[in-house]
Design a protein that fits this description.
By secondary structure, the protein is an alpha+beta fold. The chain has helices at about 1-5, 15-65, and strands at about 70-75, 110-120, 125, 135. The chain has a four-stranded mixed sheet with strand order 3-2-1-4. Strand 2 and strand 3 form a beta hairpin.
């Protein structure tokens, strides 16, 4: 009976299990920085998309309503770090967001940015709404009184 128990050894030794745990630990340590970098790049893509959408809305308002100095729309930033990990293309062919004084500090410093389009179609970013500019999110909205 004892001979049968000695021959029937199934399972892993403690050393084998420790090696597997160490390998998994190394893989996790390598993957965490890669994952966080990709997560920040996706936040940047969301911010860039939101800024472009705000630019399109403000541009449409400039083209259809010529009675204002310009239009702006506030965009809440998703990025967590200042600066850009990725290299986005210029917005509207002229604004390099990575070199702009406001756009380069999106994240920790600027949590919200105003996308501004002047009446002559010039795009700019600001931390506060410029004086004389109209909020694009209120243009064309019917106001009802209860």
């Amino acid at each position: 009976m004892l001979k049968k128990l000695k021959k029937n050894k199934k399972g892993f030794t403690l050393a084998e299990l420790l090696i597997v745990v160490a390998i998994i630990g190394v893989l996790v340590a390598i993957s965490i920085p890669i994952f966080t970098s990709q997560l920040e790049k996706s936040r940047e893509a969301v911010d860039l998309s939101n800024i472009r959408a705000a630019y399109a809305e403000c541009s449409a308002d400039v083209l259809t309503n010529s009675n204002a100095t310009g239009y702006y729309e506030k965009v809440t930033v998703q990025q967590k770090k200042d600066g850009w990990v990725s290299s986005p293309e210029k917005i509207a062919g002229s604004l390099d967001i990575t070199k702009d004084s406001v756009g380069s500090k999106l994240g920790e410093t600027n949590k919200e940015v105003c996308v501004c389009v002047s009446s002559d179609g010039v795009l700019s970013l600001a931390t506060t709404a410029p004086s004389g500019y109209t909020d694009a999110s209120t243009v064309g909205k019917a106001t009802t009184t209860p």
